[in-house]
Amino acid sequence: MEHLHKLILCLAISSLYCIVQTMTEEPCPEHSDCQSCTSVNVYEPSRNVKCKWCPLDRRCHSFDSNGPCTNYMNIEQNTLCPKARHEKYDPEEGYRLALLSAVAYAEPEYVQKCLYHSLPSYDFELVEAIGRKCNLRFNDYKECFAYTAISHKRSTIILSYRGTASTPKYKQLLDEALETFEEEKDFRNIGKVHAYFHYAFNKLYDPCLRESIRKLTRQYMSYDVIVTGHSLGGAMASLAAVALVKDGVVPGNRLSLYTFGMPRTGDKDFAYGHDLTVNRSWRIVHYKDLVARIPRSSDDAYHHGMEIYYPREGMNYTSNYVECRGDEDMECSKGQRIDLIDGIKYHTSYFGINLGEHCKNELRYRRSSEEPRFPDNHCEVISLKDAEKLANTEIKAVTESQCDFENDFCDWSRASGSTFNFQRHKGQTDAAGKTGPRTDCKGSNGYFIFADATGNLRELAKLRSPNFPIGPYCLTFYYHMYGEDMGALKVFVYSNKTRKKLLERSKSQGDRWIKQRANAKFKKAEIDTIHFEFEARIGKNYASDIALDDISITPGLCH
What we know:
Blueprint: H1 2-24, H2 34-38, E1 51-54, E2 59-62, H3 91-103, H4 111-118, E3 125-132, E4 144-151, E5 156-161, H5 171-179, E6 185-187, E7 191-193, H6 195-219, E8 224-230, H7 232-246, E9 255-260, H8 268-277, E10 280-286, E11 307-310, E12 322-323, H9 343-348, E13 349-350, E14 353-354, H10 358-363, E15 380-383, H11 384-387, H12 389-392, E16 401-403, E17 413-414, E18 423-425, E19 448-451, E20 460-464, E21 468-469, E22 473-481, E23 488-494, E24 499-506, E25 514-520, E26 529-537, E27 546-555
Parallel strand pairs: 5-8, 8-9, 9-10, 10-11
Antiparallel strand pairs: 1-2, 3-4, 3-15, 4-5, 6-7, 11-12, 13-14, 16-27, 17-20, 18-19, 19-27, 20-26, 21-26, 22-25, 22-27, 23-24, 23-26
Helix pairs in contact: 6-7
């Protein structure tokens, strides 16, 4: 009996000890920030760690519990806590960046026009458009593409990546899904990223995009850099943000990242390293966006922060949103059931903008060919200086001129009063064959110049010759005016006092190149120099391309 009493007494004391110990244990999950979580831990005179902070879910865990962080990620000392974020997500800025992401889907020659059209109250100016054929071994489709732009009013440099753009629809999405099962690639010593995104990123970044941003940040040292993109473009923007900081191109405190509907780009280590490297990062997700859920979450596929989740269909910049606590937060997109029916619909639309079709719909243009226009073996840069080379060409004085446009515009330049440029081109200008030539004037696959009607309805393209000394001249050229919406072509010769019309044509002239000659003659007392100008007025709709080729100006009258 005495032994039984002793046993009961021991059990009672043991139970009381357990109760007291439980009451005095630190309730770690109640701490909402790193500082308060780790402040309960002591190291002197002996180590007593009760709580740990996980940066991935931004929660406090008891020392023996399992959160999403691996051991090296957990924070136990408050001196190691990251600085609190002071920047808040701005939905109006998110809307602007969605428009800038939409502009990346425009063809290179329409990027500047779409910038003006989409953000008319801002001064965003295209700096460079950079592209490369982005084919995989079992598929071929349009290019990987990005552009850099600048706003002096906002002291901001923009890098925007084009997203998933494929023919037929969603073929590139299929590639993304298939490639995510391949081996991952190391990225800047912070983790691994999926092979497809690594491949697409390297197509453009080194050296083209890196050097484009480097030049801008050196020229405008106080400007911030914002990197953005949608879908695949979001994944490449995410990698670019890390690379620009790690490569020493942009200081981390001057860089921000906005992505829309981006897939999981790398593993958990990459997500952790990304959060440390890119402090101002907003990953915006529209409701049940399917692409934001692929590949499935795992240690090998983990989103970085910070997710901005719009939990309703039909989002706009006044809609309610959630600043998600963790990188993979069950209260946000991860907690939604995967929607295989409407998931792509949510993916293509952000803030009411159909990102992939925005510029095309607003400017009413069609891509002339689905064939890639950029090379496969290197990235190609189209600078603003190149795009407006005609406007800035020095007016030269010559005695004769012959130009077939095979290499450049020779000494021809954009004339005053022009609202858009002639462009060099070879091959068919319209895939449907309803306007424009199929070949150059010789019937070969050479270059010619043309005023592209798409996106330029009723606009005027003017081309100016170099200056010529006084005397008689013979102007010879080929023109092509084919299409039911055709506008008009005029040719003038100018002196410092007068203008004479040499030719005027309107309406469709048939699907053919027409050779034309015209004489120009002024009296010596009237002038010092003369020059010639072509004026191409686009018609009421897109079937009104006007092309020129083999322009020759020689001394003496035509025979």
